[in-house]
Amino acid sequence: MPRTMIEVDRGSNEPLYRQVRRVIEHSIATGIFDPRRRLPSSRELAAELSVARNTINLAYQELLNEGLVLSHERRGIFVNPEMLAAVAAEEAVSEPVIDWPSRMRRYADEGVPDVEKRADWYTYPYPFIAGQIDVHSFPATAWIRSLREALYQPHAFASLQDSVGADDPLLVEMIRREILTARGIEAGQDEILITVGSQQGLDLLGRTLLGPHHRVGIENPGYLDARHIFLRTGAQVYGINVDQDGLCLPETLSGTALVYVTPSHQHPTNVTLSMERRRRLLKIAAASGTIVIEDDYDSEFRYEGSPSPALKALDSTGDVLYLGTFSKFLSPGLRLGFLVGPAELIKELRRVRRYQVRHPPGHTQRALALMIESGDYHRALRYHRRQMKTRWEMLSQLAVECLPWDQAPYPPGGVSLWMKGPPNLDAVELVSHAEEQGVLIERGDIYYLQSSPPRNCFRIGFGAIPTRSIAEGMVRMGDVAKELLAER
Amino acid sequence: MPRTMIEVDRGSNEPLYRQVRRVIEHSIATGIFDPRRRLPSSRELAAELSVARNTINLAYQELLNEGLVLSHERRGIFVNPEMLAAVAAEEAVSEPVIDWPSRMRRYADEGVPDVEKRADWYTYPYPFIAGQIDVHSFPATAWIRSLREALYQPHAFASLQDSVGADDPLLVEMIRREILTARGIEAGQDEILITVGSQQGLDLLGRTLLGPHHRVGIENPGYLDARHIFLRTGAQVYGINVDQDGLCLPETLSGTALVYVTPSHQHPTNVTLSMERRRRLLKIAAASGTIVIEDDYDSEFRYEGSPSPALKALDSTGDVLYLGTFSKFLSPGLRLGFLVGPAELIKELRRVRRYQVRHPPGHTQRALALMIESGDYHRALRYHRRQMKTRWEMLSQLAVECLPWDQAPYPPGGVSLWMKGPPNLDAVELVSHAEEQGVLIERGDIYYLQSSPPRNCFRIGFGAIPTRSIAEGMVRMGDVAKELLAER
User: Fold this and answer.
1) CA of A150: how far to CAs of A144, A146, B140, B156, in Å?
2) Least CB-packed of A194, A282, B34, B446 within 10 Å?
């Protein structure tokens, strides 16, 4: 019998017999066992791998059950000849025939930078990054309780069935009653669509409303992913500058099919769009037939004063499209968001989604609905908001102490600070030097649309970093910045 | 104080103070409370609604925390004037400005029927439908255990973070090792993409590889959703007939950009593509540079003989694209599937997906990986397959007994039987008469591409119906069929 050359790992969590099974499959596939002869007996293999014969028998039994091997009485176990074809085909390895790159559609966002998120961010002691959460404060117990409840009656069908184009009606109702009312928005069941993260809302809108002949206005600096999504429809994208009061509105939006705005806390600068500009935006959009998308991605996080009403709440035409998300609270990994708009548009978006992903997972939809209904969601949100407020207060004070330049006051909202250093600060260098000190921050230049963006901006996120690490992280960041500025 | 006209519901699960909060919000929004004057005191409101003052105070406290109302010392509680704007805007209701239908992109699949799934299918005693599961045999305990484990270290980051374009590496590894090997497929980590149901795989491929100048071949009869997805890319779709051995291959596929096939159990007829035709399909596809998509949607369900190897396992070029799903086992509501293909294509599909939904939910990905790793997945699958085998045996015998016409033997696989009645059977009528008897079956004509499809075909699904209901359901179906045929 040939040697398998593979050993089983007794320290592994994988049951021994499954490891053995893999050894057998691998040895057939790679030609170590000649598939035309009988396979080694359980006795032979047990000796070879130093495991009990029962373990080998268990592995063979599984392979027999699945039809990969056949047992011939008295002659032993053989590879199923139908499977041999697969093995033979593998031996005759030939070259790919299709030239894949030439077959793939090209998109117009080539050359536009992507937000790069490090997969290993959580191994850094000071992750001042945006868009991630502190997993230790995730309300795991309440979430698991809701997930369990969602698997039993009367919820099991909603959780497990193919709903084709439909959403979980209970989640829609909870969003309507418990989430939108707090933003001043009244919406009917047929005006809400659940999405796989609010980003799917953007993609569905782009696919449905935009094409190569359209112009789209976005904030400058602005949300990079939205820019990619719009560019990928073939549309022309231009930037509208942002100042202390938010978007600097042009006289007219004539010729602009769609504008995308983040009024609550502008992405990435966190400024709030003033009430007067909100009204004017709605007025000129209506005058020029421009569609307005309001991305209200972290309106829950307001630490002083009163929250501004949503643009959608001021909208008397019903035309404003509103995007909400559960990525900031609860977690981006759950991929749940929603979109509010006129019923006839929602109906069409539902059809587009139905031939894309059918519907967002039913189990997590129902669990989230139950978590909101029980009050657990809002309890956890209040706790989380207090935590974020503490971090915001610490950070806005530490930023002034540690970063040696004049700073404007930080808007009291969101889960990040937008920093504008002196003109001679190179934030790209700052990011890379800080990283060497275990401090992750985000470069700001990529959010600008112009070809020579300012290099002195960066972003300090505080959603993911544990509160206890903030002070030390800021001191380190300050030291790096001082050193960099002194070198200049 | 004006009457609120709304009563609280003491029998409701919703806490009283939250109901009161809604009463207040609603009364402001609808003008019952004049928002320019002080709001009713807790004493007044407690009397009006007959609840404790503390309950009212709790509701007001929540509204205060969220900034919807303001408290002025000694003067009382007032609506936040910033919120007044929202109320005022609502009063001045105007008409929509955007003509939505004229702004929405049109698709080429208008007029092609959709698979209609009744949302209330589970209220019928005999749901012989395809594409749903029997929720009572879902392995809820193992699934919840995996979901819980996935929320704690070392799994929490994989479950909860924003992974941008990445998949859960553990799930990819489990699919590679535990799912694909059983189908004779070897694939690297970079040749696998996790999808929100296998349907997302089809959509990503359509978006990336197809456009108005392409021709696509699909099986006739064939999977209706694939037809929609291909048509919606603008491509021309044509049908290739299916007989007892599966797809009837043409001499050449020259001029066809892509063919979509279901070799294990053809959708909807359940026939298995013969080994000889598999080889020929691969040969002529390679000769004409045609991309082959293999949808292996229920290969787990084979009840006699040995499973045929996947087309992908026979593919020596590495060009075949393979779609797998966890919708048949475990559940369509979880929306998890995967796609196997050449690394350079997978990389591009990952980028398309990243600007569409970012990634499938991390929590369910990691939980599924843990469920496979623990062996629970395959244990539950074996149990489920035995159940399905029992149902298949019952049904294929009952079909011959109850349906009064000559029937070809049923292929021993899949989770449905494809029925071909005598030429004078109108299956559309059969479906509607059966429904009146509590029996849900599926019409077959919608799966054909020709404009006058055969009317005598239908499908009996057995994945969702409890085993104990099968016999009675078949008797009822038989009675309806006999009656219909006698009338002719």
Assistant:
1) 10, 6, 10, 21
2) B34
> What tokens appear for A299 in the block?
């309106």
Spans of chain A, pLDDT less than 70: 1-7, 29-32, 35, 83-93, 306-307
- Give the domain ranges of chain B: 16-91, 121-133+379-486, 139-374
- Look at A135 and B144 and tell me if their CB atoms are within 8 Å: no
Per-residue pLDDT, A95: 83
- Nearest CB among A96, A105, A147 relative to B207 is that of A105
Taking alpha carbons only, the member of B420, B416, B396 closest to residue B481 is B420
- What's residue B109's pLDDT? 92
Q: For residue B177, how many other CB atoms are within 10 A of its CB?
A: 17
Helix (H, G, I), strand (E, B) or coil at A238: strand
Beta-carbon contacts of A465 under 8 Å, excluding residues fewer than 6 positions away, are A126, A127, A128, A129, A134, A391, A473
Closest CA to B482 of B422, B428, B435: B422
- Give every CB contact of residue B223 below 8 A, 6+ residues apart in sequence: B260, B262, B267, B268, B295, B447
Query: Is residue B155 less than 8 Å (CB to CB) from chain A?
Result: no
Is pLDDT of B424 > 60? yes
CA distances from B456 to A60, B188, B425, B481 (A): 45, 45, 5, 11
Q: Where are the beta strands (DSSP E) in A67-156?
A: 69-72, 76-79, 126-127
Does A132 sit within 8 Å of B103, measured CB to CB?
Answer: no
Is residue A243 within 8 A of residue A237, CB to CB? The reply is no
Per residue, the 3-state secondary structure of B412-426, as one string, reads CECCEEEEECCCCCC
Give the minimum alpha-carbon distance from A104 to chain B in angstroms, rounded to a whole number: 5
Please indicate whether, in this complex, the C-beta atoms of A317 and B95 are within 8 angstroms of each other: yes
Q: In degrees to the nearest 10, what's the CA dihedral of A466, A467, A469, A471?
A: 160
Query: By CB neighbour count within 10 A (0-12 exposed, 13-18 middle, 19+ buried), where does A122 fall?
Result: middle
Secondary structure (H, E, C), B69-89: EEEECCCEEEECHHHHHHHHH
Reduced to 3 states (helix: H, G, I; strand: E, B; else coil), residue A10 is coil
> What is the distance between the alpha carbons of residues A315 and A313, in angstroms, rounded to a whole number?
6
Distance from CA of B424 to the nearest CA of A (A): 32
Domain A121-133+379-486, CATH: 3.90.1150.10
**A198 at B interface, C-beta within 8 A:** no
Chain B: nearest CA to A242, how far in angstroms? 22
- This model of the complex carries an ipTM of 0.84
DSSP strands (E only) in A287-396: 291-295, 321-325, 337-340
Distances (CA, A) of B435 to B126, B439, B481: 9, 5, 12
One of 2.130.10.10, 3.40.50.300, 3.10.20.600, 1.10.10.10 is the CATH number of B16-91, namely: 1.10.10.10
For residue B288, the one-letter residue type is S
In single-letter form, the type of residue at position A334 comes to L
* Interface-testing mutation among B153, B157, B181, with chain A (most A C-beta atoms within 10 A): B157
Are the CB atoms for A270 and A278 separated by under 8 Å? no
Three-state SS for A192?
strand
With contact defined as beta carbons under 8 Å apart, do A263 and A310 qualify? yes
**Which CATH number describes the domain made up of B139-374?**
3.40.640.10
Which chain A residue has the Cα nearest residue B106?
A: A208
Domain A16-91 identical in fold to domain A121-133+379-486: no
How much is the pTM?
Answer: 0.84
Per-window interface: B 132-151 vs A, CB < 8 A = 132-133, 135-136, 138, 140, 143-144, 147-148, 151
Which amino acid, A394?
M
